[in-house]
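The following record pairs a protein chain with its ligand, FE2/S2 (inorganic) cluster.
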Amino acid sequence: MSVTVNLSVNGKQVSRTCPAQTTLVELLREHLSLTGTHVGCDTTQCGACTVHLNGKAVKSCTVLAAQADGSEVITIEGIGAPDALHPMQAAFKACHGLQCGFCTPGMIMTAIDLVQRTPQLD
Ligand code: FES
């Protein structure tokens, strides 16, 4: 069975028809060629696949694309550019927080969500 998913990805409206069991990360990587979001464990443990779904960090390996229908998704590609890094990307770079780089997009998306949801500590 196929489903048609309509959603906003990085500010652009997209529509794709895919198998019903397609996960959000598969939709992003394989149908939309947004390969900055990675799959590490595929079992909701590592966070490499983290994106923002309606403003909150989610592990996109365990969200069905159909569940994201009508939603707003932001991926690592949607937060900055090589010549205009998001402040969190710049902070990771400045603090050598990149490690091997595979999980870094997920860590950055998680860190942005954490900062947005955590009250200022003075
Ligand atoms: Fe590890 Fe999704 S790939 S949590």
